Structures are given as structure tokens and as C-alpha cells.
Amino acid sequence: MIALRTQPTRQRKPRIPGGIRIYAIGDIHGRVDLLDELLSRIDADLTTNPISIGIEVYLGDYIDRGPASREVLDRLVVRARTFRSVFLKGNHETYVPNFISDPRVLKSWQQFGGAETLVSYGITPPLKADLDDQIRLAASFEKVLPGSHRRFLSSLKPSFTCGDFFFVHAGIRPGVPLAKQREEDLLWIRNDFLLCEDDFSKIIIHGHTPVLEPDIRPNRINIDTGAYATGRLTCLKLEDDRIEFL
Fold first, then answer.
1. In terms of DSSP bridges, do strands 235-239 and 242-245 run parallel, antiparallel, or are they unpaired?
2. DSSP structure class, residue 10
3. The domain that contains 24 carries what CATH number?
4. How buried is residue 80: exposed, middle or buried, by Cβ count under 10 Å (0-12/13-18/19+)?
5. pLDDT digits over 49-81, tens only?
């Protein structure tokens, strides 16, 4: 385990309330193998270092790109039954309901790894799907999508706050209070947020933009280490004023 600390502009270090430990998990993108390994490490850490309240916070983008999106959702649905979990919405999760309601979304979704998701559900789209293909694929997908997955995707939260930390998929719009952020920004924003050095009032924990190593800044921490391509799924551990990585 590597212990790292932010260097916030505040006089005191950012903290999580006493008796609580947060495990924040970056973008999974269909890598159920990495998720299984990480859950085992979390369980081992909890056994070795018990805590009154342990919370897993998933930063979204559970599906697409990697080979096992369906299996990832299966694991998370089961995990939520036995562990206190917060599941945030990523921009990739918006494609599932959008595709079902408007099959023409397939063309855009495929550019972001949607074909891999469909294949994980037993549906293989053609390379160049015409409108009839799109309608047929959307109907097939709606038929095979489990109810547990529908409920999971419809219950995703746009953000989560604990102590001095604000958890979100992509980031926030600078200059806008955290309570008034638009969901579109929370799911999609990049440079306007990434290049901003302002104090956001809380440390922003986010993913969405892949980095080779966790990117720790005074005002934010990026834990999307590109799991689907790099084989590295990052978990940030927060307790009291300590910031570590499993």
C-alpha cells in the first residue's frame, strides 16, 4: 500500500468523519477480472483493519470498452447487497437507456465501446448497422437486459459528498457551487475542470480522463488509470486525514 497526501491550500488537511472509511474505485469499463481482484483486496483490508463504517464509492463507467460489462454489473448488484456502496453515474451509463429509446444512438455508442457491451450480453452488432439493424439490436438488448441491471442503472447518483471530499465521475464546472452543478458537467466535463487551479471548497475525487498514475492535485484527485487498456484499476482509500491507495 502506498501512502500519499494531497497538498491543499487550506490550513488543515481534508478529512473524512471519524469512524468512516471510504474506498473510491475508478472507471472499471468492463474489466470484471480487475474488479474481482480489487474487491478481494478491500475485503482483506477490512479484515486486517476493521472500521465502524466502510463505504465503497464507485465513480461510474462500469461498462463499454472492456470485454465483460454484463459481468461487472452482475458483481456490483451482488456487492450492494452485502456492503455499503455508492454508485455514481458515468457518461457511458447514459448510452444504455438512450439506445433502447432511440436505436440511432448505436452509431455514437459504438465509438465509445458500446459494441463490447452488447457482445457481453450475447448480441453482436454488424460493423455498419443500418436503421433496421439498429432497431432490431435495440429490441434484442432490451429483451436480454436483466431487471437488476435496469434498476442498478436507473439508481445511479450524480455525486456524493463525505467530509471534505466531493465524489463525481468527470468533474465540476468551476465557479458553480457544488450543490448547483449540472449533471451534464458532472458526467462529461474535461479541460475547463482539469486545467482549473481554484479551490473548489472540497477536494474533488473523479475519473473520466485516463492517466497512467493517480493524479493528485491540491484541489482534485483523478483515479481513472485506464483499467480497460492498462490493466490497472485504482482504489483510493480515505480515512480521517489519510489518503492512501490499495
1. antiparallel
2. S
3. 3.60.21.10
4. middle
5. 999 999 999 999 999 999 999 999 999 999 999
Q: Which domain holds residue 42?
A: 2-90+158-245
Amino acid at 137: L
| CA distances for 2 relative to 20, 51, 84, 244, angstroms | 20, 19, 24, 6
Report yes or no on 135 lying in a domain: no
Q: Is 162 helix (H, G, I), strand (E, B) or coil?
A: strand
Q: If you count them, how many residues does the chain have?
A: 246
- Is 101 among the domain residues? no
Band of residue 11 on the pLDDT scale cut at 50, 70, 90: low
Pairing state between β 220-222 and 53-58? unpaired
Model confidence at 5: pLDDT above 50 = no
pLDDT tens column, 124-167: 998 888 999 999 999 999 999 999 999 999 999 999 999 999 99
Contact between residue 88 and residue 54 where contact means Cβ atoms under 8 Å apart: no
Q: Which residue has the cell 490550513?
A: 11
Distance CA 160, CA 138 (A): 32
